[in-house]
Amino acid sequence: MVSDTDHQPAQSLSLTTETPENPGSHTKKAPATSAVSSGQGIQDQFAIMKQLLRDQLDNCREQVSFLEEQERKNEQIRIEKEVQRDEMKNFLHGALEAQKELSAVSSEMAKSEGSSWVLFVVCRALIRVAEDLETIRVVLEENHHVQMAELRAHLEGNVNYKRQKQEELKETLRTRS
User: Which residues form a coiled coil (predicted)?
Assistant: First the structure.
């Protein structure tokens, strides 16, 4: 911190000495040391401020690097989720198509043969398809909940990291002030 004495104007000190030419006292002016110490204090403060700015710049660079890495991870997670979603959609589409085909076959067989056994087999296949669809739905919901929890934890980690860095910077500023 800058003290009030560091900003006082420089004053000259008076020294009284006797010389052979003048047996009385003679006054000489000597430069004040307060001007030198004031200049040194300003240089010290400037050096401290310069170091603080370097530290802040380093912290900003570190945060930018961290955020860029998090952004890359988020993009990778997003792409993986899209791939999973597309695969599940394709699987669901295939299951629905199979269900439609089984329904068409079962109705044709019921019309042509009237056999209850064939109808039973087709109905059993339809039930399995419906069970598979339900399993897929449950897996999708669980996957969504897990992904949301991972994202929430990831975002909380980002917030905690930023708070920690901010506290470290504040502490650094307090210790240097």
Answer: 50-87
